[in-house]
Amino acid sequence: MIDLNKSKNFSKLNFNCDQILKPFEKRVIEFLQQFSNSLMKDKSNLEYPEIIAFAYWIRRSNLKKLQKNLNILTNEYRIGRGLILHIPPSNVITGFLYSWVFGLLSGNSNIIKIPSSNNSVNLKIINLIKKILSKKKNNFLAKNNFFVSYNNNEDINKILSLKADCRLIWGGDKTVEKFKSYKTKIHNIDLVFADRYSFSVIKLNEKTNIKHLVEGFYNDAFLMDQNACSSPHLLIWYKTQEHLIDNFWSELEMKSKIKYKIDIGNAFKKFESKINNLINVKNFSALRINGKTITRIELNKLQNGIENLRGKFGQFFEFKTNDTSFLKIVSKKYQTLSVHGVSKNFLIDKITLMKLKGIDRVVDVGKSNSITLLWDGYDIIRTLSRVINDE
Amino acid sequence: MKIRYKEYYNFFNNYYKNNPFDHSINTKKNLFNVGMNILTKFHQKNNKTYGQIIKKLNFQSNKDYEKENLPFLPVTIFKDFDIHTSDLKMIDAIATSSGTTGSKVSKIYLDRNNVLNQLRVLTKILTNYFGTKKYPMLVFAKKTANKNEFLNAKLAAIRGFSILANELIFCLDEQNNMDHDVFKKFLEIPSKRKLIFGFTYDIWEKLYLSDLKYKKINLSNTTLIHGGGWKKLENIKVDNKTFKNKIFKKFKIKRVINYYGMIEQTGSIFLECNECHNFFPSIFSDILIRNKNLDTITNGAGLIQLMSLLPTSYPGHNILTQDVGEIVRENCKYCNPRNIKQFRIFGRVKNSDIRGCSNI
C-alpha cells in the first residue's frame, strides 16, 4: 500500500498505464483464480462471509459464466480505456475488491483508494495481493495496479482525478458530489454508485415454500445489517392473504432468532431508528413486533419519499396491495427490486411502460446482494472499455 | 394551565418533602412509580409528537405501568428533533449538550417551572449530601457575564453546583488555561473548608497536569466535585481510582466526589458514594440496565436507562442513554442498610461498525 500522505511516494505511481488489455484476458482470470485460492486457504477469512463470497465470485468458472452472460461479440475489437481511479465504499470490507475487479476484467490499470475503516483486514488482504503480484507471471499487473491510502485531502483527490480515464465513485451522495466537482480529463468517464434504496415484492400462496423463501430474504436483509444499497427496507405484499404473511414473519423471526447477532452499540442505533421512523412515517397503520429482532411498520398508503425512511438491523415497512400502482413511488434512488411469486418480466415490462427513472435490478429474493457485471444500471465491462470499429 | 399539570404539581410538591435519599419501599418503589406514570400521561396529553409515538408503540393511555414497562425514548431524540411539551412562548432557555464540533447537539427546551424544579431538587440532593453551610468554590470555567438563551452543559452544571458556594472563583483565563494568580488567591482564602468544581477532564488537564511552580499545596480541607464523563481520560488510561490517588498525592485532597448526570436530566443527578465509590440515585431518579434485546437486566453490563421525575417542559423523563453501566451489589456500610441501588458506569457505548455500503 502506498501512503500518499508522504508526497515523495507519488513517484511510485505509474500514471502512464502502458498496459491496456482486452476484457477477460486469460492472464487476468488466472491471476484472480490464484487470488481466490489464497483467500480460501486462509482460515481466518472464514469469519468474514463477505470475503468468502468474493473469493467464490472471482473463481475462473464463475468469471467465465459472467463473461458468457455478457454476450460480448467474439469479432469485436475491445480494449480497456486506460487508468481507473477507484473511490470504494468504506463500510463494506470487500467493496474495494469488487471495484478493482471491475477495472481488471475490463482491461484497465487501477489506482484504488483504500478506505480507512477495517484497517487490519484491508492490510492483510493487500499484503496477500502483493505477494501474488510479485510472482513473475503476474508482473504485468504489479506495475499497473496501485493501492493507495491517504487522509482526506482535497489536493490528492484532485491530482488523482485529473490523471484518470475513468473513475468509479462509491459511497454516500456527498462523496460523489465532492468528486464530481473536481476537474477531470476531457474524455473521462465516471461511474457513480451513490446511495440507493431497495425493496421487495412478494406474493405468497398456499403452495409457497416459505422456509426456503425466508432463507433467501434473511440473507438479503440481515447479512449486511439491512444497510447495503441492495438490502430491502419495504415489503410489498402482492395479492397475498393475511395468514400467509403472518407465517412468513414467524418463520423469519425464528431464523433471525437463531442466526442474527447484534451488539449493544447497534442495539441502541436500532432503537433510535425505530423511534425516528415512528415520528417521521406518514400513513402509519400499525406497529408489529416479531420476537426480539423484527419490527414491522404497516402502511395504509404508499407515498413518495418512503425511501427516506430506512429500517436497520431488522426493521421493515410493509404494504398490502392487489395492483401494481405501488410502482408510482419509484424514483431514481431505487436500485434493487427483489421478487418472489410475481414474474420478473411482468414487472420489468411495467417499469419500462411506466418510464420509471429508478430500479436497476429486478432479481429473485435471496439474490439482492449478489454482485454482477451489470450494476446500478451500468454495463460495467462495456462502459470501462472501448470498441475499435473496422467498418 | 396544561392538561393534568395540577396532578403532577400536587404529586411533586408532596413527594419533594421526603428525604432525597429515602430509599424505603414506599417512597422509592411505590411513589416513584406513581410519579413516573403521572409524568408519562402528562407528556402524552400535552405533547403531540410524544403522544403519537406512545400510541404507535401500542401503549394504553389510561393504564398504569410498572416502571420497567413504561415507554422510554432514545437520548438522541433531542438531537434528531426539536421536541418540547411546553409551548415555545413559555420556553425560557434551551440547554445544549457539549457535543464535539460537527456533531449534532441536544436541545433541551426549559420553561420556568422546569428550571425551578431542577434547582429545587439539585439543592435538596446537594445540601443533604454536602451540608447546608456554604464555602468558597473554585470553578474551572471562564467567567461569563452575558446571559445567553442557549445554556450549555457546563454553564448549567456550574449554575447548579454554585448553590454550595458563598463565593464563586472562576479560574480559567481567555485561553482556557488556569490562571495561576487566581488559583494562588484561592489557596490563601482563610476558610475552614473549600470546594473545587469542574468537568473531570478539565480538572485533570488544567489542574492536575498544570505546572505549579509554588511549593507545597495543601488542600486537605477541600472537597473536589467533578463530573461530565471519562471519555477523554479513558484514552490515557486514567480511571476513577487513579484519578483520586493522583489528586490526593499532589494536592492532599481527600474528598473527591464524582457525579453522573446529563443535560437531558439536569437536577436529578447521581452522586458517588463516599464509602463504596459507586453511584446511587436519589428519590427523584432511577436507573435501569437493558441488554442488547433491550430487556431489563439486574446482572451484567448494558445500556443505561435513566428516569427522572423532573422533566415537564420536554419529554426527557424516561430515556435510553448511549452509556454502558451495571448495577452492582457491593458491601457498603452506607448503601446496604439504606437499601440503596449502587451502580457503575463504563462510559459511552463503542461506536460499532455497521456493514453495508450506505453511509447513512
Descriptive report:
The complex is a heterodimer of chains A (about 400) and B (about 350). The mean pLDDT of chain A is about 95. In chain A, α4 links the parallel β3 and β4. Chain A is about 35% helix and about 20% strand. Chain A starts with a strand and ends with a strand. With about 400 residues, chain A is of the alpha/beta class. A 7-stranded mixed beta sheet of chain A has the order 10-11-12-9-8-13-14, with helices on both faces. In chain A, strands 1-5-4-3-6-7 form a 6-stranded parallel beta sheet, with helices on both faces. A two-stranded antiparallel ribbon of chain A has the order 2-17. In chain A, α1 runs antiparallel to α2 and α1 crosses α5. Chain A contains 13 helices and 17 strands. Chain B has about 350 residues and is of the alpha/beta class. Chain B folds into 2 domains: about 190 residues, ANL, N-terminal domain (Rossmann fold); about 140 residues, no CATH class. Chain B contains 10 helices and 16 strands. Chain B has a 7-stranded mixed beta sheet, sandwiched between helices. In chain B, strands 1, 12, 13, 14, 15 and 16 form a 6-stranded mixed beta sheet that branches. The longest helix of chain B has 22 residues. The radius of gyration of chain B is 21 Å and the shape is globular. The interface between A and B is large, with 43 and 34 residues.
Brief digest:
The complex is a heterodimer of chains A (391) and B (360). Chain A is of the alpha/beta class and 391 residues long. Chain A has helices spanning 26-41, 49-57, 60-70, 95-105, 119-133, 139-142, 154-163, 173-180, 210-222, 242-259, 264-280, 344-353, 380-383, and strands spanning 2-3, 77-80, 83-87, 109-113, 145-149, 166-170, 189-193, 197-202, 232-238, 284-290, 294-299, 315-321, 334-340, 361-364, 374-375, 378-379, 385-388.
